[in-house]
Design brief:
Elements lengths: L2 H4 L6 H40 L3 H24 L11 H39 L6 H41 L1
Helix pairs in contact: 2-3, 2-4, 3-4, 4-5
Length: 177
């Protein structure tokens, strides 16, 4: 539900804003936990692959992907600093806090595009220099993963920009009203 509709038709708009922030905080906690579990799984798979095929090229590719995964997780935690709870109990504080979260999500999308490009380059480098890893299926799988991830990032950016616009209008109404 768009943010500006969260308070519409309610007897207590502040309570509606507070409930929405709490739901979003729970979502942020679950997302962070999921990312940590996913990153641990990726690192485990990379370690297993490195033990299976310990050629210098394979190890370089796996180490590069592991560093990207660790760096992405560290960046995500850094990007979420200060997003766990609002420091105040007014509608303006809640809206400003939500705007900050939107801006950080948009920053995450930009980072995600860069991360996707870096991971794709590592895979392409590895595929083209390692005939044993090369196959039409592997390249097709990579292309499908890149396409799906790019689509998800684009949709996430569109949703976040729309929410940011709605929040900015709501903020203007609170300040002007």
């Amino acid at each position: 539900m768009p943010f500006h509709q969260a308070a519409a038709g309610r007897s207590d708009p502040l309570a509606a804003l507070r409930r929405r922030l709490l739901r979003r905080t729970l979502g942020l906690v679950l997302l962070t936990a999921g990312e940590i579990v996913f990153s641990a799984g990726i690192l485990t798979l990379l370690a297993a692959a490195a033990r299976r095929t310990p050629t210098p090229l394979d190890l370089a590719a796996f180490a590069s992907l592991a560093l990207l995964a660790i760096g992405a997780q560290a960046w995500a935690l850094w990007n979420r600093r200060g997003l766990w709870r609002a420091h105040g109990e007014s509608a303006l504080v809640f809206v400003d806090f939500s705007i900050l979260r939107c801006r950080r999500r948009l920053r995450s999308v930009r980072f995600g595009v860069g991360l996707l490009a870096a991971e794709t380059l590592v895979f392409l480098f590895w595929f083209f220099l390692n005939p044993a890893a090369w196959s039409g299926f592997a390249l097709g799988l990579l292309a499908a993963c890149v396409a799906v991830t790019a689509l998800v990032l684009a949709l996430f950016a569109r949703y976040s920009r729309a929410e940011l616009d709605a929040l900015s209008k709501l903020r203007d109404e609170i300040v002007d009203g």
